[in-house]
Amino acid sequence: MATIISIINYKGGTGKTTTALNFGAALAKKRKKVLLLDFDSQCNLSLSKGLKSPEKHIGLVLSKKATIEESIFKLDTFSIVPSVENLLDYEFAISNEPGREFIAREFLQPVKDKFDYILIDCPPSLGLLSINSLVAADYFIVPMQTENFAFIGLDNIMTATQKVKDRMNPDLQIAGILLVKFQYRTKFSQAVISNILSNEALKDKLFDAYIRQDISLMESPAFGQTIFEYAPKSRGAKDFSAFANEFLKKHGQGKKEA
Ligand SMILES: Nc1ncnc2c1ncn2[C@@H]1O[C@H](COP(=O)(O)OP(=O)(O)OP(=O)(O)O)[C@@H](O)[C@H]1O
Ligand SMILES: [Mg+2]
Fold first, then answer.
1. Ligand 1 atom with minimal separation from the 14 CA
2. Is 257 inside any structural domain?
3. Residue 149 lies in a domain
C-alpha cells in the first residue's frame, strides 16, 4: 500500500518541485515504485519531464473526466500524472462540490496498491488543491530555503495542517522540514536553524539531511532529467540520496508512529 506524501509550503520558490522530482527519483533508485502528482498550474514538475500540454492530466482526474489509471505517464524512473496550465479552471469547477477536500483521497484509492510512494507537488498556496493533498496524505514534508525569511510562514502551515488533521485526516503527520539551497556557513542559515530550534512545535521536526545549493539542481529540469540522470556525482545527488535514506529510516513503510 502506497505511502502518500504531500510536499507543501504556501510560499513560492521554496524547493517543493525540486524535492518532489529528486526525492521521487532517489526513492525510485532504491527500487521503490513511485508516482508523482503535479498539483500546480505552473506545471514545473511536468515540464521537468518534458510533459507540456498533455492530453490526460490531473485536472481531468479531479473533475472525473478521466480516471487516474489512464492519466499516468509511465517513465523510466517513475510514473507521473502531469498538470495543465488551466488547472485553476478545473479547481474552480470542483470548488462547490460537497466533500471537495476529499477528491484526491478518493481518486487515489484504485492506485494505492500499485505504488510504494505517491508524492504530491503542491502549488504555492494553501488552497483547495493543497488541502486535497493533505487530506489524502500520510505525511507532509515542508521544504524551506534559507535565503529569505521563509521560516516566517511556518506557523501558518502548522496551523493549517493541524486543522486538516483534526477535521478531515486524523492520520496526517509531519515527516519533517527539509532545508534546501542550504549554505551551512552563512549567518542567515544559522539564524534560520536557531529560529526553528527555538520553536517548541518545530524543534524536533528538522531533518538532519539538508540539500546544499547546487547549480545542477537548477539546470537538470531544463534537460528533462532528474539530478541522478543529469549529474549523478553532484552535491545535489548526494544530498537527495542522504535525505531519502533518512526519510526511509524514520518513516519507511511499517514505521508509522501510532
Ligand atoms: N539546492 C538548490 N540549489 C540551487 N538551486 C535550487 C536548489 N533547490 C531549488 N533550486 C532552484 O530554486 C528555484 C525554486 O525551486 P522550486 O521550483 O523547486 O521551488 P517551488 O517551491 O516548487 O516553487 P513554486 O512555489 O514556484 O512551485 C528553482 O529555480 C530551482 O531550480
Ligand atoms: Mg513548484
1. 21
2. no
3. yes
Strand partners, 65: none
Q: Is residue 256 part of a domain?
A: no
Mutation test of ligand 1: which of 17, 45, 145 has the most ligand atoms closer than 8 Å to its C-beta?
A: 17
What total of structural domains would you count in the chain?
1
Q: Where residue 258 falls among pLDDT bands split at 50, 70, 90?
A: very low
User: Using CA atoms, how far apart are residues 115 and 96, in angstroms rounded to an integer?
Assistant: 31
Mean pLDDT of all residues in the chain?
94
Cα(124)–Cα(115) distance, rounded to whole angstroms? 26
Atom of ligand 1 nearest to the CA of 181: 1
Q: Is 9 exposed, middle or buried (0-12, 13-18, 19+ CB in 10 A)?
A: buried
pLDDT digits (tens, 9 = 90+) for 80-102: 999 999 999 999 999 999 999 99
15 is a domain residue:
yes
Name the pTM for this structure: 0.96
Residue 255 pLDDT greater than 80, yes or no: no
